[in-house]
Write a structure and sequence with these properties.
Serine Threonine Protein Phosphatase 5, Tetratricopeptide repeat, TPR-like_helical_dom_sf, about 475 residues, TPR repeat, alpha/beta, repeat, Rossmann fold, 2 domains, about 5% strand
Length: about 475
């Protein structure tokens, strides 16, 4: 049953609308697939005497779909992924469905369709299926409660072309080399481009080594300098800096600031390179990550699919960038409650990464982390624990024991250990993660707050046990 009052009120509207066994056409907009499951289960409890039929437009036989619905004749009919009706490959089926409005309405069925909350779904519905939309009896919207997140999920720099380091030690050596070079480089007009390029490399090295404030400072100065020149020929250079600065802002928890910069960078990329270029795809992927952090899961999903479509045209299927983009899609599917779909994708990208860049690479480690989250959501805590331990071995070797990415997996492993009843070790890892995140990200960062809350909760449970 729904616990929050807003969703309970919407569900009560649904109950009232379906009390009588007459034809009803109802749209349920949802933010998370768990809400779809709750609606279906609660209606089955409320009306145990009525028959129920379930369909999903991802897995239908288009030739028999309408006949199968008409064969039900009575009871509840649930249709998931109804938004797929508005895609070109199902257009003929949508037209046929729409034309049978009057026939459907002669049966005492409660036809309930599920569509994601947000976007232009209802507008597409009105345009594509106007006859059916005209007999809509009820539309409700269900939103997920904002709960404390246990798993942080490893977020790597998606623009891997800008990361030339295998580990933090290499990045620190690069910082030392570049700073020495900048001190000896004469500040002359002919050296301006070289100086800017070195500063960009320096900012990136600082970010890789988790000195986010220094990286932000360097990028902000560069951006200010270029914008002050008012030179339209520098637009793509500015867009690149905006993209890199946005990543640092997201590292620091400023998702809205990152969103603004990425939208500007994408506008420039689309203008100069087109929507299918790999540079544009990088912007789509980075903005998808930000929208996910802002809980705009459908918007994030739409963008990452655009990035993946670009990858299919420009990169081979086992390219690390392609794997990263699929991993982002999988984490969004997890947010939407599609744990099996996420698991399938993450197993594929894990296998690709192990084959192409090796088990000890930090990108592979991030795939282990995200797959572990899928296994946790599916109740496989032992499998999740094994993957996180592999991820931590890679993180500790490549990033070091005091890096925020390593801290994320300390926290994620602690969550699994809690599930397995090892509260003492979980508290130790939570505290270790908290101290690292507090140092690098500050006490107000969302990750720091989450780990602090998890640590307090673990302490409470340990005292009870």
């Amino acid at each position: 049953m729904f616990k929050d009052s807003s969703n309970q009120a919407e569900f009560e509207l649904l109950i009232r609308a379906t009390r009588n066994e007459l034809f009803h056409f109802i749209i349920v907009q949802y933010q998370h697939l768990d809400l779809v499951r709750t609606v279906k289960n609660d209606l089955k409890v409320q009306y145990p005497e009525r028959p129920f039929a379930e369909f999903n437009l991802e897995n239908i036989n288009s030739e028999t779909f309408i006949h199968s619905i008409l064969a039900c004749k009575t009871g509840f009919i649930f249709i998931e992924k109804f938004e797929l009706f508005f895609q070109e490959d199902l257009q003929a089926l949508a037209i046929g469905f729409n034309q049978r409005r009057d026939l459907f309405s002669t049966f005492p069925i409660q036809l309930i369709v599920f569509v994601p909350l947000g976007g232009d779904t209802l507008l597409h519905f009105q345009k594509t299926m106007p006859d059916f939309y005209s007999i809509l009896n009820l539309s409700i919207s269900l939103k997920s409660e904002i709960l404390l997140e246990e798993n942080l999920q490893s977020r790597i720099p998606f623009d891997i072309t800008n990361n030339d380091y295998d580990n933090v030690e290499e990045a620190k050596n690069e910082i030392e080399r570049i700073e020495k070079r900048l001190k000896t480089l004469e500040d002359t007009p002919e050296n301006t481009s070289l100086r800017y390029e070195l500063i960009i490399q320096l900012a990136n090295a600082y970010r890789f080594s988790a000195d986010y404030l220094k990286s932000r400072e360097l990028y902000e100065k560069l951006l200010h300098n270029f914008e002050q020149q008012n030179d339209i020929s520098l637009e793509t250079v500015i867009a690149n800096i905006q993209n890199n600065l946005a990543l640092v802002l997201q590292d620091l928890g400023d998702d809205m600031g990152a969103k603004v910069l990425l939208e500007k960078a994408i506008n420039s990329a689309e203008k100069y390179y087109g929507v299918d270029h790999s540079i544009t795809a990088t912007g789509y992927a980075n903005l998808a990550s930000v929208l996910r952090a802002l809980r705009d899961y459908e918007g994030a999903k739409e963008l990452i699919i655009k990035a993946i479509n670009s990858d299919k045209k420009n990169l081979h299927e086992e390219h690390p960038t392609t794997a990263i983009h699929f991993s982002i899609l999988a984490t969004i599917l997890q947010d939407l409650g599609d744990y099996d779909g996420a698991k399938k994708i993450l197993e594929q990208v894990k296998n690709i990464a192990e084959k192409t860049i090796g088990q000890e690479h930090f990108i592979t480690a991030s795939f282990y982390t995200n797959l572990a989250t899928s296994l946790q959501n599916l109740g496989d805590y032992v499998g999740a624990k094994q993957l996180l331990e592999k991820a931590l071995r890679a993180d500790e070797e490549k990033m070091g024991i005091n890096h925020p990415l390593t801290a994320i997996n300390y926290s994620n492993l602690a969550t699994i250990l809690e599930k397995l009843g090892d509260y003492d070790k979980a508290m130790t890892l939570y505290d270790k993660a908290y101290q690292i995140l507090l140092k690098h990200l500050g006490e107000q960062h969302p990750y720091t707050k989450i780990v602090e809350g998890n640590l307090d909760f673990a302490k409470q449970k340990n005292s009870i046990n």
